[in-house]
Structure formats: C-alpha cells, structure tokens
Write a structure and sequence with these properties.
single chain; 5 helices; about 35% strand; eight-stranded mixed beta sheet; five-stranded mixed beta sheet
Length: about 220
C-alpha cells in the first residue's frame, strides 16, 4: 500500500526510478519562488513531505521548527526573461527542485562525465515568442548568457506543445531530439536526486493543458 514511509524507504534504498514512478510529487511553486526587488538565486531550504491518497507526496516549505521530520533541498527559482542556474555536486543537498515549467527550458550541463557535478539552468519561457518555435532561439540566447565550466554532456527539457508547430516546427523538434532534448507537453515539474554513489538523476512530471499528470520522464 502506498505510504510516505514506503516513498522514503525507496529513496533510502536508492530505488529512485521506482519512487518517482510510483508516487506523484507536488508542491506550490509560488511558496518557494522569489518575488519583488531581490536578486533571484538558488538557495537551500528545509522541507517536509505530506502523503495524500492515493499516491501523492506534497512537498511543503518549512520555516519554523514544528517537530516534523525534514529534508533539505536545493531550490532554483525562475526569473522573468533570463536564466537562473546552480551547480550541484557532492556538497549540495541530496534533493533538487526548481519552479514549475510553462514554456520554460531546463538545461543540464554535466561537467565530469559521471553525473557527479552538473550545472542546471532554468531558462525563462516568457520570451517574445514564448511557446512558438521562434522562442527556442530566444531561449538559446538566454542560456548562452550563463557562463559555466566546460560540459562533457548537455541535455535539455523543453516545451513540446509548441504553438503554430507545422512542418518546420516538427522538423525543429526532431533535430533537437537527436541532439539530446526531451519534450514535455504543456507544463512540467522537475526533480533531481543524488544517489549514494554521488550521481545526479533528474526526472520530469509531464502535465497536459488540463493540469493532469500524463507521464514521468527520466531526463
């Protein structure tokens, strides 16, 4: 029977794929994001998990000592018309979460060839062309503005339900997929986990326009 205890046990045993396939993780992005006249950047925060039937794990931001069992995560907020980034390694918290995706892109730049050091970027989707095919080139510009260490491998998660797709759009997607891009439908939530060997893995919940989870992707 699904339970919070089983979810924790799967993570502890390193059965990460099974944990993310059997359970839907959900959280209120607005509770974690940064707003107003502040410099948006990644930060570490305590969280608590709350189980809801039938198999939903709610992730809650904790700011006070309420006696609940906590996990520390690295959270990367998004920022309008730019790209935010953080480098994850063995010194980072073992869990990573970023803002919900809607037209945004998630880029992973693996630096060591083993998946133990990776710079991740949340590239804003509110460019001039937003979800249209031309928006991909605009997000390329934002991504390239973030300077990182050389990457041995780069992978991306991008919006797939592009507006005005047409033949050119389909060909664009096929080209990007061959280069290592995975696509989500309309919305997505991304989570990262570092296993006991120090290797980072990233997963995306694929969400359609009805706000229904339609699949889990290993990215």
């Amino acid at each position: 029977m699904a339970s919070l205890e089983e979810f924790r046990a799967l993570l502890h045993e390193g059965k990460i794929d099974e944990a993310f396939k059997n359970y839907q993780l959900d959280f209120n992005s607005a509770a974690f994001d940064q707003f107003g006249d502040v410099k948006v950047s990644a930060y570490e925060v305590d969280i608590a998990w709350d189980f809801q039937e039938p198999n939903v794990i709610k992730m809650l931001k904790k700011t006070e000592n309420d006696g609940s069992k906590r996990k520390k995560i690295c959270y990367l907020p998004w920022s309008t018309k730019t790209a935010t980034s953080v480098t994850l390694d063995g010194n980072s918290p073992p869990y990573f979460v970023t803002s919900h995706f809607s037209n945004c892109r998630f880029t992973m730049k693996f630096h060591d060839g083993q998946g133990k050091t990776v710079t991740v970027l949340h590239v804003a989707g509110d460019t001039k062309s937003e979800g249209r095919v031309q928006g991909s080139a605009e997000r390329d510009i934002l991504e390239n503005e973030v300077k990182t260490e050389p990457a041995k491998m780069t992978r991306r998660l991008s919006v797939g339900g592009l507006k005005d797709l047409g033949k050119a759009g389909r060909e664009h997607k096929q080209t990007k997929m061959k280069a290592g891009t995975t696509y989500y439908d309309t919305y997505a939530r991304v989570f990262g986990v570092r296993n006991k060997n120090g290797v980072w893995s990233f997963y995306a919940q694929n969400i359609n326009h009805k706000d229904e989870i339609i699949g889990l992707q290993d990215i």
